[in-house]
Amino acid sequence: MANIQIGIDLGTTNSEAAIINNGQIEIVKNHFGDEYTPSVFGINKANEEVIGKKAYNALSEGSKKEIQNNKAEIKRLMGTPDKVYFSRIDKEYSAAEISAKILERLKQDIKSKSPDIDITGIVITIPAHFSTVQAEATKKAGELAGFKYVLLLQEPIAAAISYGFTFKENGNWLVYDLGGGTFDSALISAKDNNLKVLSHSGDNFLGGKDIDWLIVEEIIAPVLIEKYNLENFSRANKNYSAVFTRLKNSAETAKIQLSRAEEVKIEVDVKIDDDEIYENITLSRSQLKSLLQNLISKTIDLCKQTILEANISKESISKIILVGGPTQLPFIKETLEEVLSIPVDTSSDPLTAIARGACIFASSQMIPQEFCKQKEINDNTYILKLNYESMTSETEEIITGIIFELIENENEFFVQIQSHNNTYNSDKIRLKNGKFIANIVIEENKTNEYWVYLFDKDGNSLDLSIDSFSITHGLSLSGAPIPHSIGVGITKKDNALGILKEESDIFFEKNSILPLERTKSYKTIKGLKKGDMVNCLPITLYEGEHSIPDRNIRICEIEINGEQLPYDLPESSDVEVTVKVNESREVSIEAYIPLMDLSFDARASYGDETLNIEVMTNDLEDETERLKDFDNLCTNDERQRLYSSINDIKQSINKSENDDDEKRKTNIRIKELKAKIDRLQNSKKFEIFKENFYNSTTDIQQLIEEIKDVPKKDEFLNRLETVKTDGNQAINQNNEILLNRVNEQLDELGRAVVMANDFVWVMWLRDFAENKTFTDEEKARYIINRGFEAYKNNEMQEVKSCVHQLSLLLPNEEKVAMDNKMAGITK
User: Fold this and answer.
1) Measured torsion, CA atoms of residues 715, 717, 720, 722, in degrees rounded to the nearest 10
2) Could you write out the DSSP letters of every residue in 538-554?
3) Is pLDDT of 819 > 60?
């Protein structure tokens, strides 16, 4: 039986490894003597793989060739289908594969430091706000690096463990983790030697990298553009990608220097359009503080959200723990204390806290027997099973054991337990029916290792299947919470509009404690014929807080099709969906159809959705138009914030052509924008209903006036007056529900009025003639000609008949594709 001995902070910019050495946590230095290794992978000029400082230095040169063959900050692409191409070897790597190379480098450093260390298991930290697919990709990277048993731990929890390892007082701590590429905020409760995560929030696209780019775009580039009269000089221009890589490196160096100095000179040494440019640009700490105002405000808003979700008062939080390199900027500490009125504790090392915490946690985790290198067992080996807590806050612990071969043996046998450093030696404990119990002493604030010996009555030592174990003294940890809600997409019918729409049905709320398992029952939305390979019933698992699925992140999907069925599946058949999430956030989903006693299952996918810049641009245009529909009802502040977000996304889209990370960031920001507009639209619902009511009554009035059939016209006018009376009454009473019903009645009336107008049918006929393709083009042309002939002769019933016949000739592929995108289940 063995415990994990290695914890790794796999960071965006730098990675650190920590190990257990003689019961103490130790940060492993690499062959350069550094405690951290740059998270950079590359191919050198000899076509050899390089990791860490050598790859970082090559990338910092900023030449086009080195940019093509060295990749940094891969963490923000974890869980995506994006590949990185290395031209020197004509090969692509996924983010998980590159991360595995970095982990392999750290493993080599660990083995160099401690050749005898057990590398079977490892704990790797991930941002608390990582999605499930990102977590899955990180676990895969650990396995690709050769670690058989990989556990994941959220970074703020690791930091809290590191800080609280020797901390004895009860209290609530706010972890402020601003790393190289991500931000996490977590509220931790330390009570009675137990750590518990109350809530957390974060942003996977907010970190030191974004600070570097702000310095480049707001400080360096404007100086160069003005002084050297540069045109089209931007990150979006791929001709300058090498230049901007060098500028980013200069910005990063200046940022680090400003954590110790009040003012620095940014050294710019680049070649732009055949001109050698050398500049020293002054940047002060106060300038940087002003530049980062919005970024830091966003992190503080996330901290406030974390506190709000924890449902505790700000006054009950005793301190803020800083984690991550950028937190060494003094004004971050000052701003946090000023805005949140909570003292900041700077006693822990923000650069190594996560790796240390990961290792402490690792030391308490047993490696399952199936992953361990089995000790050679022969006929003379006795099988021992031990029971104990591998992490405790107590200084003594009761341990029990059983040796199966001795359960009914009447001879005398004894067990003795001894600590590795000889600070504890038990008496010889006589076994009773093969069992024993011992009360062992535990040294504080370290991992205690023990030997177990078995003797016969003559004092001869006998072989045991397990001859050692370890117990870590420190704070124990309650289960980790999930950072996002998890649910499935279901299809519901909007009876008012007569359309189908998708919603998320939540299985597990955000902050639910792992592990999780739940089963829910649904109905199939449609029937499915045996052998049908075109239609399907998709069941998609999403992660996120929004009721509209496309605002969330897709985890995985089960697709039930006719090929899998033994016979036809009727509409509204029962489907039982089970979702499980384990401690490492691995997700599985199973769908069971009782009617057929048939199960379908899926594991969480390793790849996020494939992105298309044109689609994202169209999405942004659609959201902009949606906002315009009710922006006159917004306050100046609401309007300004949303249009500012839209402009920021436009700029991100421009940069996305040459930057996969920026593309992912853009996609998330569009989802966030949709959610913001949803919330704002919902808050303005009554005002929007009023505006729709007034606009609809005016439009319908005009349409009715164009109807030539006088009895029909009078009928519609009377119906309109009745609905208007009800609408005005709802407005006077501020009755949102009634006004919504009135608008639904207006929609129905409007459709009836439109159908009664001859010009609408003629418009549809023209649209069919100009823009549609048909399953039978010859027949369609005949019907179109017949329709126009009927229109000339004022035979409107014939026109309507022709339009209806043409609609039946439309190809159904588009309809099938649309149907297959809709969730296959409903309530």
Assistant:
1) -70
2) EEEEEESS-SSGGGSEE
3) no
**Ramachandran sector of residue 181 (left: φ over 0; alpha: ψ -120 to 50; beta: rest):** alpha
Q: Any bridge partners for residue 280, and if so which?
A: 267
- When pLDDT is cut at 50, 70 and 90, the band that residue 460 belongs to is very high
Query: Residues 168-212: pLDDT tens digits?
Result: 678 899 999 999 999 999 999 988 777 888 888 999 999 999 999
Amino acid sitting at position 26? E
Burial of 495 (0-12, 13-18, 19+ CB in 10 A): exposed
Q: What is the DSSP string of 512-537?
A: PBSSEEEEEEEEESS-B-TT-SS-EE
Average pLDDT over residues 780-792: 90
Please give the Cα distance from 617 to 615 (Å, whole number): 5
Does residue 818 register a pLDDT over 50?
no
Strand, helix or coil at 41?
strand
Burial 338-364 (b: 16+ CB within 10 A, else e): eebebebeeebbbbbbbbbbbbbbbbb
CA distance 545 to 552: 7
- 263 vs 607: which has the higher pLDDT: 263
Residue with tokens 């017949």: 786
Phi, psi at residue 330, to the nearest 5°? -55, -35
- The answer to whether the beta carbons of residues 562 and 530 sit under 8 Å apart is yes
Q: What is the DSSP string of 407-457?
A: TT--S-EEEEEEETTSS-BPPPEEPBTTEEEEEEE--TTSEEEEEEEEEET
Superfamily of domain 2-167+354-363: ATPase, nucleotide binding domain (3.30.420.40)
Q: Which residue shows structure tokens 């950072």?
A: 483
Cα 629 from Cα 676, distance rounded (Å): 15
Lookup result for tokens 């138009």: 625
In the numeric block, which tokens belong to residue 151?
């556990």
pLDDT of 652 > 80? The answer is yes
Please count the residues of the chain: 827
Report the C-alpha gap between 46 and 37 in whole angstroms. Answer: 22
Nearest of 750, 743, 739 to residue 699 by alpha carbon: 750
- 202's enclosing H/E stretch is strand 194-203
CATH number of 486-610: 2.60.34.10
Collapsing DSSP to helix, strand or coil, 214 comes out as helix
pLDDT, tens only, 548-560: 888 898 888 888 8
**Residues 399-427: tens digit of each pLDDT:** 999 998 898 888 899 999 999 888 899 99
46 CB-contact burial (10 Å; exposed 0-12 / middle 13-18 / buried 19+): exposed
- CA terminus-to-terminus distance, the chain: 47
Three-class DSSP category at 291? helix
Select from 575, 592, 579, 561 the least CA-distant residue to 826: 575
Which residues are CB-contacts of 11 (< 8 A; sequence separation ≥ 6)?
36, 39, 75, 179, 180, 181, 354
- CATH code given to domain 374-477: 2.60.40.10
CB 478 within 8 A of CB 196: yes
| Rounded distance between C-alpha atoms, residue 58 and residue 66, angstroms | 6
Decide if pLDDT at 69 tops 60: yes
- 502 vs 827: CA distance, rounded Å: 12
d(CA 191, CA 177): 22
Cβ distance 421 to 23 under 8 Å? yes
Q: Assign 560 to helix, strand or coil.
A: strand
To the nearest 10°, the Cα dihedral for 381, 384, 390, 393?
-120
* Phi–psi pair at 268, nearest 5 degrees: -110, 115
Average pLDDT, the chain: 88
